[in-house]
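Checklist before submission:
- one chain only
- standard amino acids only
- sequence pasted in full

Submission:
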Amino acid sequence: MAGANETMINELFVEKADTFRLERISLILLLGCNLKCKHCCVQAPYYERKYYPTLDFIKREIDATFTIADCINYFSVEGGEVFLRKDLALILTHLSQYVDKIGVEAPVITNGSFLPGRDVIGAAKLFGEKIRFIIDDYGVLSPNAHEMAKILRDEGIRCDLRNYDDNPYCGGWVDLYGDYGEKHSADAAEAMFLKCAWAQKLHGVFEIIGGLFYFCPASRVFSERNRTENEAIDFLAKGVSLQEIRARIQAWFEGGAISACRFCNGIHDHSERKRPAVQLTAGEETSARLSTFRYRENLGEVL
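Returned file contents:
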C-alpha cells in the first residue's frame, strides 16, 4: 500500500518543490435537480431542503480553492443540475479568472434538459479550450441534449455527449450506497480504496460544498447519515492556515482508506452496473429523505 500511495503523492504534490497541485475538484453549485435519479452519486433528490448557495459564497469558495492550490488539473462545475442556476454565466465568468491555474480543463456537467443562453456561451468562451460541457443523455429525460451539443459545437465550444440511454457510457451507473450500512472490514475497506477509481485512477474526486472539502461524495453522504465521522476540511474556517489545509489534504492520500470505504460499494472495473437515471417513486423519495443537514450558503455564515 505504501508504494502505491507514495507514487500518488509524488504525482500530486511534488511536481515542483514550491507547487501544490490537485488533480480534480468538483464544485457543487446546488443540490436541486429537475430529475430524481435513484442512484445519484451526490444524492441530490434525497434532500428535503435543497442546497443553493449565494453567488458571493460560490465566488469565495472558488477564490479560496485557488489560494490553496497553485494548479488544479480538472475543476469541475456540477450540481444537481447546473442550468437551474440563473447566475451560471456569472459563476463561469468568475472562475475564468483562474484559467491559467486550471491545468487541463473545467468540465461543466449537465443532464441535457436545458439549452445554454447567450450569457453562458459568452462566459464559456472566456476559457478558450479549457472548458468542456459534458452532456449526459438519458434519452427522453434529456430532451435538449442533442440540440445543446449542436449549439455548443457551432459556437466552437468543446462538449461531449455521453450516451446513458441505449448503450450506457461505462456500462451504466454504480449504486455506491446500497442500504447505507457497513459492508467491509478494515482490511476489505483498504482493498476497496486501492481499487476504487475515485481514489486511484482519478486521484480523489474532491467535492466542495458549503465551504468544505470532502475526499469524495461518499465521504459526505455517509457522514450525513451518521455512519461515519465528518472528515471534511473546513477551508473557510477562521484561524486555519494554508499550510494546515494543505497538510490535511496530503494526509488523505498518506492514510489510505477513509472511514467511508467501510460502507461504500466503490466504483471499479468489476462494480455491478445499474441502469442510469432510474427515477425515484414518490414513496422512495419520501422514505429516504434527509432533512437535518444544512450547509453554509452565504458569507454571513462564515465570517
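Reviewer check: The chain has a mean pLDDT of 91.
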